[in-house]
Design a protein that fits this description.
- This protein has 553 residues and is an alpha+beta fold.
- It is built from 21 helices and 8 strands.
- α10 runs antiparallel to α11 and α10 runs antiparallel to α21.
Length: 553
């Protein structure tokens, strides 16, 4: 399993580095190579190759997995790229009917939103023709911007909500991104999310803007409407609060609500991974639910006889992880963590939890099969790297019993759980340092100290309070969460020098201004992908909490 995972990753990386997709000749060569690898594996199993047999098995298994990873990623890329915009439609008016598929993001001049196209047609070229000339080939999912007009009455909030069906006249273009070295790859970011065209809504009277249905009854659209209601509630309750955007990001995954200056502080202190629904939060919430479920399950003997408490805890943790990912709108990082948690939980449910490295390798395969573009994200490498280090440090370690702490020197020693936590913190910091240097060219020296304080506060206090405030109609929960985070920022600011001025001015517009202006979005993206990196225990590094909880006692 471990060798298969390594080979599959190498194959995915090899395809991602190609300038173009394989041609028919390359597909033929790939099929021949796969056949040779399969025959070699069967030959090695049947024939006694002596001392060369282990090496041949390793080479054949690695080559087969690598070829499969290359072929699968090529097929996935071909399918994704086939949903493309017709070049002849660029810069032309196109009439679309579709549904607002995600949470609209306000920015200085309007709204930006994802749109699922149901039908696309070219407007009539002359009044003598029929109202609709011909159908048009448009990708299923696009990103649109709706700009406010120049008139004073156009400054009102645009009437757009998630789950609504609209008819728009738009102008589209294929995704384009800057080619700056080591910069944010906007085109790859859109491709990873399945967005194959961008554009803007044409203003009246030259364009049509008509709401057809107030709500399209589908589960995903209902989920987005619920997330929008939560954001509006936070906006009303914390209208003047400086860090309201952070609570919105922690509750529903709307990271654009955080201002760019705060992203800089988070990046310099290495805590950016905490300011969104990341793997750490998903696993932390699932771990807490699993621990609570196991504690309650053990108190009912009839339930324990039907299903062991460890398995019940694993199932509860998996459901909690799925629910939290749903609240985040199934963002890509949260999906990766959900796959990892699902592998661990299913291994425990079906009594297949053997070596931790095998479970980690299986999770790696599942993530890459479902999302081959994950290898392009630094968070992917940091997540699995942190999990591997934690598994290595936390496995097969003997804990001294309480009776061994005799004498005053024994009582002055820190508790074993605190010492283990410190070992994990430093192990992850040192273990990820080479990877951080390779990905970002820098390592935050303040990251261990900042994460030692920020991880427990954000994951165990601020995030649960924000989630409770999103569900319960008690504003004091949100006020408490904001007060705790405001105190945390007082500790983080001295650790992140170089903070720019103008923070109060940036926040003057509230959540709407901070949410999605091009400058703030690019700064946030740069902070996350160029300077932001997880500190100790980051992202999916806490995926082993379910396993540890289920194996406890």
């Amino acid at each position: 399993m471990r060798l298969t995972a390594v080979g599959f990753v190498l194959g995915v990386l090899l395809l991602q580095g190609q300038a173009q997709l394989p041609s028919w000749a390359m597909w033929l060569a790939l099929a021949i190579a796969l056949s040779c690898c399969v025959l070699l594996r069967q030959r090695v199993r049947r024939v006694n190759a002596g001392a060369y047999r282990p090496a041949l098995q390793v080479v054949s298994s690695l080559a087969l997995a690598m070829l499969l990873g290359f072929a699968w990623t090529a097929l996935f890329a071909q399918w994704r790229l086939s949903d493309a915009l017709d070049p002849a439609l660029e810069g032309r008016d196109v009439m679309l009917v579709g549904v607002v598929a995600a949470l609209p993001q306000p920015f200085d001049r309007g709204l930006r939103f994802e749109f699922e196209v149901e039908s696309a047609q070219l407007p009539a070229t002359s009044p003598s023709t029929s109202p609709i000339a011909a159908p048009a080939q448009v990708p299923e999912r696009i990103q649109l911007a709706w700009y406010r007009g120049p008139q004073p009455e156009d400054t009102a909030e645009l009437p757009l909500r998630a789950g609504e069906r609209w008819r728009f006249t738009v102008r589209l273009r294929r995704p384009h991104g800057s080619a700056n070295p080591h910069g944010f790859d906007y085109e790859a970011w859109l491709l990873e999310r399945g967005i194959r065209a961008t554009g803007y809504v044409r203003p009246a009277p030259s364009g049509v803007r008509e709401r057809l249905d107030d709500f399209v009854p589908q589960p995903l659209y209902a989920l987005e409407r619920m997330r929008e209601a939560v954001r509006e509630r936070f906006r009303r309750a914390l209208a003047e609060a400086p860090y309201a955007g952070v609570l919105v990001a922690l509750a529903i995954g709307d990271q654009r609500a955080i201002v760019a200056d705060d992203w800089q502080v988070f990046a310099r202190t290495g805590v950016s991974h905490l300011m969104s629904i990341s793997g750490l939060h998903v696993t932390m919430i699932s771990g807490l639910i699993a621990a609570l479920a196991m504690a309650l399950w053990r108190r009912v003997p009839s339930l324990v006889l039907k299903l062991p408490a460890q398995k019940a805890a694993a199932a509860a943790g998996l459901l909690a992880a799925f629910a939290y990912c749903a609240i985040s709108g199934f963002s890509v990082p949260a999906q990766r963590t959900l796959y990892m948690v699902a592998v661990v939980a299913l291994a425990l449910l079906f009594d297949r939890f053997s070596a931790a490295s095998r479970v980690l390798a299986l999770a790696l395969l599942v993530v890459l099969i479902l999302d081959p573009w994950a290898v392009l994200s630094p968070g992917f490498w940091l997540s699995f790297g942190a999990v591997a280090v934690i598994f290595y440090v936390g496995s097969n370690r003997l804990v001294a019993p309480p009776a061994a702490r005799n004498g005053w020197r024994g009582w002055l020693r820190p508790p074993e759980w605190l010492r283990q936590w410190g070992r994990v913190q430093w192990a992850v910091t040192v273990g990820l340092a080479p990877l951080l240097l390779a990905l970002f060219g820098q390592v935050s020296l303040a990251s261990p100290i900042a994460n030692a304080v920020a991880i427990p506060l954000v994951s165990l206090v601020v995030t649960p309070l924000a989630l409770a405030g999103a569900v319960l109609p008690w504003d004091f929960l949100l006020f408490t969460a904001h007060a705790v985070f405001e105190w945390l920022m007082l500790l983080l600011k001295p650790l992140g020098p170089g903070r720019g001025r103008g923070v109060a001015a940036a926040r003057a517009g509230g959540l709407e201004r901070a949410a999605g202006s091009p400058r703030s979005c690019l700064a946030a993206g740069a902070a996350r992908l160029s300077g932001a990196h997880p500190g100790p225990g980051a992202d999916a590094a806490a995926v082993c909490r379910i396993a540890a909880c289920a194996q406890a006692g």
